[in-house]
């Protein structure tokens, strides 16, 4: 039986939505929330909540969605090997339809950025517009030739760290106050955390990267050494966050960060001993708890990374939110 026009439209709409990769949208919210909390100036008014929602839409469904759709558009050949069920390689969307998807979400993100920047005004408004424009530009050159930053890990990981782990902190903060120096530190640490996680995320596409000549770290140095590099960055981030908490006088958060670091080191040791099957006790959290949010994988090393990511992200996010809240309280009392 032939599909009805209505069902065909719904399936096409679902394919467009899948191209924007909704599971990635939530990744921008912690940075925006921390930035807003650290300002100490957000008010419980409809305007402040709506403007924060607008910035979430700008960075999440639109900005992150653009980065995902433009990546799929330029990576058709690789996705036919790595992810053949994605909308373009599976034939559910043509390249022309995917290009239209990219253009629409790009223009909407730019439009919201201009509106929010003008609504905020002054230097803070310029910061917000500068951050979203920079993030969109980096998202494009990450996937598009001739630069195609993703071809080399030394360019790809920092570009993702900037777009996902840095600009959102500053934007959330600039919505409601001048940029707090503490939030610059938190944004920088989240940049490095994102760099480490994107290095590990490359496990999922080793086969296609090797065939396509992309120089991801797992391709260049192998799985165990990739774990070592990423874990060194992650532990350094926790160590610096401990020092910052101490210098800012946040004793309780400092203790929590130290506990988080100790737990991370224990988990990391299990993965270094067994890169493919380590910390299998966390598999239930991936399959039944966070699987729909962080994805699933048949690549053993990537599946190990997903188990680690659940624990690490919870520990790091909780510490970020607590510290951002205490920064905000400090400025409210000033």
What are the main properties of this structure?
single chain, Farnesyl Diphosphate Synthase, mainly alpha, globular, 334 residues, 15 helices
Can you walk through the features of this model?
The chain is mostly helical and 334 residues long. The chain has one domain (16-333): Farnesyl Diphosphate Synthase (Orthogonal Bundle), CATH 1.10.600. The chain has 15 helices and no strands. The chain has helices spanning 5-19, 29-39, 46-74, 76-82, 95-120, 122-143, 153-165, 167-174, 181-201, 206-212, 217-221, 223-247, 251-273, 283-294, 300-333. α2 runs parallel beside α15 and α13 (251-273) runs antiparallel to α15. The longest helix has 34 residues, at 300-333. It is globular. The mean pLDDT is 89.
> Helical proportion?
over 70%
Describe the sheet with the most strands: none
Let me know the average pLDDT.
89
One letter per element, helices H and strands E, the order comes to: HHHHHHHHHHHHHHH
Task: Please identify, by name, the CATH architecture.
Answer: Orthogonal Bundle
Number of extended strands: 0
Distance between the termini: 69 Å
Shape: globular
Helix segment tally: 15
Identify the CATH class. Mainly Alpha
Give me the secondary-structure category.
mainly alpha
CATH topology: Farnesyl Diphosphate Synthase
Unreliable spans are none
Q: How much strand content do the residues show?
A: under 5%
Q: How many domains in all?
A: 1
């Amino acid at each position: 039986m032939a599909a009805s026009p209505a069902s065909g439209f719904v399936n096409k709409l679902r394919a467009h939505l899948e191209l924007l990769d909704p599971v990635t949208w939530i990744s921008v919210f912690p940075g925006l929330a921390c930035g807003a909390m650290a300002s100490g100036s957000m008010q419980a008014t409809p305007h402040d909540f709506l403007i924060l929602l607008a910035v979430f839409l700008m960075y999440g469904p639109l900005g992150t969605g653009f980065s995902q759709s433009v990546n799929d558009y330029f990576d058709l050949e690789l996705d036919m090997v790595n992810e053949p069920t994605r909308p373009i390689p599976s034939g559910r969307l043509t390249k022309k339809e995917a290009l239209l998807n990219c253009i629409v979400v790009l223009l909407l993100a730019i439009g919201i950025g201009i509106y929010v920047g003008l609504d905020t005004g002054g230097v803070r408004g310029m910061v917000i517009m500068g951050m979203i424009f920079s993030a969109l530009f980096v998202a494009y050159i990450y996937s598009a030739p001739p630069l195609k930053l993703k071809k080399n890990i030394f360019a790809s990981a920092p570009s993702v760290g900037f777009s996902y782990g840095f600009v959102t902190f500053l934007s959330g903060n600039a919505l409601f106050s001048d940029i707090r120096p503490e939030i610059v530190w938190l944004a920088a640490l989240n940049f490095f955390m994102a760099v480490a996680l994107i290095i590990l995320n490359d496990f999922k596409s080793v086969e296609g990267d090797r065939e396509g000549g992309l120089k991801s770290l797992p391709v260049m140095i192998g799985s165990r050494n990739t774990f070592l590099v990423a874990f060194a960055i992650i532990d350094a981030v926790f160590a610096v966050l401990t020092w910052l908490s101490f210098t800012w006088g946040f004793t309780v958060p400092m203790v929590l960060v130290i506990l988080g670091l100790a737990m991370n080191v224990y988990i990391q040791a299990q993965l270094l001993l067994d890169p493919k099957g380590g910390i299998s006790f966390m598999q239930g959290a991936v399959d039944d708890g966070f699987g729909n949010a962080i994805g699933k994988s048949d690549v053993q090393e990537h599946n190990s990374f997903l188990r680690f990511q659940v624990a690490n992200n919870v520990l790091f996010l909780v510490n970020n939110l607590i510290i951002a809240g205490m920064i905000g309280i400090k400025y409210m009392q000033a």
